[in-house]
# Entry
Amino acid sequence: MQSLLRDNPVVAILGARQVGKTTLARDVQAAWRQPCHVFDLERPGDLARLADAELALEPLRGLVVLDEIHRLPGLFPLLRVLADRRPIRTRFLVLGSASPALLRQGNETLAGRLALHPLDGFSLPEVGIKSHSILWLRGGFPRSYLASSNSKSRDWREDFISTFLERDMPQLGIRTGAATLRRFWTMLALYHGQVWNASEFARNFGVNHATVRHYLDVLTSAFVVRQLQPWHANLKKRQVKAPKVYLADTGLLHALLGITNRSDLDVHPKLGASWEGFVISQVASFLAVRPHECFFWATHAGAELDLLVVRGRKRWGFEVKRTSAPGITASMRIALADLELQRLVVIHAGRHSFDMAKQIRAVALSDLPQELKPW
# Structure
């Protein structure tokens, strides 16, 4: 973070609410050797101080932190002017629960001046592979993961969902009632790990395709839903072209599905899909890949690959199996050949890792850190 601020006059930390953006900003402030000025835009007093933003911000030197910046997107044109001063007098650290308005304003007015730092919840590289079970069940939101019991963790997630639907969604431009939005989010939970089907969602909610797509995109922009885009190779096979939909945090997924503990999870019909989404997100964390480097692949004939990671000339494929004895499938061989993969990794729930065939290796989740090092 310090290097980003050295190289860019404006740095944006973007992530879901309660994911730890303010905590990270405080760590940055503690290490900053120049004066720091903090504005929390959810506080009426700080909003009042910014009534004349140019008068308030222009004289400041050092580091200026603007928390919940999406509440005042009109600040971005002013930040562009202040960032262009030479010599640079002020660095700006802006925090936001990402919204379309925030990203649009940033891209339009701060091109070449703004560095984005997406912030997710806890991941296995941070908590350690031995803690994978509790991370999978409770998700990565710090207060959910660190709760003293599963029931208290569930209560925190239920409160988060209610607050998000009743307060945050209207701020993101969604005026539909909280009860309807909860139904939509719960339906997304039931679709977790499946290809997006706009027609089915539109029928269930009695609205058009554009409306349900808008709901999906807003939840995605707020970092509570992830869309894994399809890979379009130049093949003769007819390929699936709609994204796969995952809830970004398995703790929220389990709360929406009524899952409190491992006993509930182990018998739930969405067990395999939950495991798949969890493992895919952890692979992305271990490899430090960005969303635009991650895809899934599927053909209408039935061949598919859970995760394709592409960076430059590297192409690695990943299959996720909630089993201790994975086997090679026809889909794996087709994906290996048609996608020209250098390596296909089958991540499973067993204890041992082993070679299955040339370029295909079964990897136990516990061995994931070591197995992914060659990347």
Observations:
- The longest helix spans residues 150-171.
- Residues 1 and 64 are 14 Å apart (CA to CA).
- The mean pLDDT is 92.
